[in-house]
Backbone:
């Protein structure tokens, strides 16, 4: 059993939450629950709710607190996440964290409260290059980066052999500027919030994917 089993990943867009979360989840034998992915799944259904969510995502704004708390809580309590989870991208504001705090006081969460908030620290100067270079294989979900994690064979997915790649609709320079502003204004205040609760640990996220995941391994203790 790892030292920590219910982990929130915090950090600016492009800090590596998704990449490190996937590695961590695999090594710990738990699932990564990505707030952004849950929202993008709803967008793909084409529902009215999905259309509203898409407007928020494409503007770089946060969706309603009620909605994201409901989606994430449901996932945290799902039977397959009984032994732990990695939360990527939730909570994203003090408001989300406070409501989530209340939710965690309910009996369903007994013994299942978040026990570590891992801040992946990356200065703004790294972020644009990281985000604008990233792309994904839509068939298997693997993420790549033009410079930091290219496919082994140009134009072919390492994992599934897929030949078509996609970029996130919100990975544009304009939206990134807005997402960074939202991070600074709404999300960064969670750093002192979780520090006060004694839950926060920082990791320097500027190294290579392997270097950062080694440091995370030591912190999490798996
Ligand atoms: O975490 P990720 O970058 O995938 O999130 C994409 C978008 O989803 C955010 O920019 C925001 O619009 C929305 N989101 C949100 N609340 C969260 C997580 C994501 O509104 N807790
Ligand atoms: Mg992500």
Residues:
């Amino acid at each position: 059993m790892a030292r920590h089993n219910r982990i929130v990943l915090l950090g600016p867009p492009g800090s590596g939450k998704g990449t490190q979360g996937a590695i961590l989840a695999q090594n710990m034998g738990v699932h990564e629950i990505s707030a952004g992915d849950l929202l993008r799944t709803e967008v793909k259904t084409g529902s009215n709710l999905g259309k509203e969510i898409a407007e928020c995502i494409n503007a770089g704004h946060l969706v309603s607190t009620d909605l994201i708390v409901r989606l994430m809580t449901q996932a945290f309590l799902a039977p397959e996440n009984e032994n732990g989870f990695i939360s990527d991208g939730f909570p994203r504001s003090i408001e989300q964290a406070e409501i989530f705090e209340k939710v965690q006081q309910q009996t369903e969460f007994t013994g299942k409260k978040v026990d570590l908030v891992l801040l992946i620290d990356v200065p703004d100067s790294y972020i644009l290059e990281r985000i604008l270079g990233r792309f994904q294989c839509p068939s298997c979900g693997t993420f790549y980066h033009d410079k930091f994690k290219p496919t082994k064979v140009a134009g072919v997915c390492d994992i599934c052999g897929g030949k078509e790649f996609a970029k996130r609709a919100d990975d544009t320079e304009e939206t990134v500027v807005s997402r960074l502003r939202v991070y600074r204004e709404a999300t960064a205040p969670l750093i002192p919030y979780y520090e006060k609760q004694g839950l926060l640990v920082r990791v320097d996220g500027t190294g290579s994917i392997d270097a950062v995941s080694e440091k995370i391994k030591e912190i999490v203790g798996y």
